[in-house]
Write a structure and sequence with these properties.
5 helices, mainly alpha
């Protein structure tokens, strides 16, 4: 992941509603969620939800698929993992991390 892609992804997640939407999609896993299910679950108005989903889609964090009359939104786990890898790339002073049992999963 390049720095501009990381900035775009982090900017998309740097808003409370978008972060909640993304986290809900992560929990939903590969099944994803319809906008109506997201709206009901999170208590977000449909027009507001649409705006936030568009921002997450532009950052590559969310994908949309049509299933009949419904749209299904899914978290893009490969993109999320690429962002996490980018952010932790230089932990342990650039050396491969040693497994640890702590909350970071790293012996740094």
């Amino acid at each position: 992941m390049e720095i501009n892609e990381a900035v775009k992804a982090m900017a998309a997640l740097a808003q409370a509603s978008r972060l909640e939407i993304f986290r809900a999609l992560v929990v939903a896993g590969s099944e994803g969620m319809t906008p109506s299910a997201l709206s009901e679950t999170l208590g977000v108005a449909a027009n507001t939800l649409s705006f936030h989903l568009k921002e997450l889609s532009h950052a590559g964090l969310v994908a949309q698929e049509r299933a009949g009359r419904n749209l299904i939104y899914r978290a893009q786990f490969d993109r999320m993992n690429a962002l996490i890898s980018y952010l932790t790339e230089n932990c342990c002073q650039g050396q491969p991390c040693m497994p640890a049992s702590g909350p970071t999963g790293c012996a740094c």
